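Entry:
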Amino acid sequence: MKAQDKAEKLHQKVNTFILSCIGSDGYPMTKAVIPGKYRESLNELYFCTNASSKFVAEITVNPKTSVYFYKRKLIWFKGCLLKGNIEIVTDMNIKERYWQGIFKDAYPQKSFTDPDFCVLKFVTIAGRFYADFKLEDFTII
């Protein structure tokens, strides 16, 4: 099985993703994010956050980002690092698609139309998959 296929399989199973960007001060900025409710492929990943967040302000200046996700059991560990670019989604159809009822308490308008509700689209360029003490690099074509 190719590294990208292994990473894709892991991507479908995990629930926490670590998203990082480069802050305006030159240092990494990292936050844990919940994936969008649909996971089509590693080519594009969607995350929901607040438009007013410091993270969103930073990615408007520099869209180069990385995403890390992993699964750990007692003695084994699998993880994947993806690098790529992120963009703020303005298409209301996509925002509606990724809206979840559990978000209502976080937004005054209680809807995907709330101006602070933000969907981020991460477009993967390359990845590194780790399992069984081995690293495998791959490129998204």
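Residues 63 and 85 are 5 Å apart (CA to CA).
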